[in-house]
Design a protein that fits this description.
Strand content: under 5%
Distance between the termini: 42 Å
Helix content: over 70%
Number of domains: 1
Order of helices and strands: HHHHH
Protein name: Protein C10
InterPro entries: P_C10
Keywords: Cytoplasm
Pfam families: P_C10 (PF14974)
Shape: globular
Number of helices: 5
Family: Belongs to the UPF0456 family.
Amino acid sequence: MGIDNVETARMAARESVGAFEDPKCAAELARIRGECGTDIAKFFMMAIPKATEILSSVIVKYGYSPDQQGSLTFTEDLKNFEFDPEIKGLSERVKSQFVPSAQS
């Protein structure tokens, strides 16, 4: 399975962003990010697993495993369709969930 065409990529990317924008998920991830602050170790121990959990609810529908490897493979597969401006923007929003916020 996986993403094999632009329409599927667009649908999967939209669903993924939607999962992260769900009010309950967004609030939980924001709380965890706040708790992590600038501590990168905490971010990797707390925020990455939560982001993976949120994304897994979508990616399993497309044949990816519901774990960090599945999330990584999914975002890598989306790259193949980033020639489409909408997919590129959505893909960047998904990937941003796995990157610590720049805080000073």
